[in-house]
Specification:
The chain is α+β, with helices and mostly antiparallel strands. It is 37% helix and 25% strand. The protein is globular, with a radius of gyration of 13 Å. InterPro entries: Iojap/RsfS/C7orf30, NT_sf.
């Protein structure tokens, strides 16, 4: 069994919003079979604290305007090195590129299937 379609939809909207803010290595993992607290992790990164903050703002705006969803919890906004947005169904990790290499969440959750985000790279931001 995989993540529910609603969770996949939220991950796709968040992933496209991250890509629109030039996030690097946008990936979503279906963790629904591995953890009980969420269905999917979206992981992406930016080269600077300013870009991390912009990516976070873009994701929050997209999920609010397109799906009327606000994060249940936010962590790490002040430092903007690793910001976590918890939407219940999905958890978004926006990391500074250096932190992403160091923590390697994809390696930690390598048993989780990758979700096809269907990101439109040609879409204007």
């Amino acid at each position: 069994m995989s993540a529910p379609e609603e969770s996949l939809d939220l991950a796709r909207v968040a992933g496209q919003a991250a890509a629109d803010k030039f996030a690097e290595e946008v990936i979503a993992l279906d963790v629904s079979e591995l953890v009980v607290i969420t269905d999917a992790f979206l992981v992406c990164s930016g080269d600077s604290e300013r870009q991390v903050a912009a990516i976070v703002d873009g994701i929050e705006e997209a999920l609010l305007t397109q799906r009327q969803r606000k994060p249940l919890r936010r962590e790490g906004e002040r430092e903007a090195r690793w910001v976590l947005l918890d939407y219940g169904d999905i958890v978004v990790h926006v990391q500074h590129s250096e932190d992403r290499v160091f923590y390697a969440l994809e390696r930690l959750w390598r048993d989780a299937p990758v979700i096809d985000l269907q990101i439109d790279a040609d879409r204007p931001a």
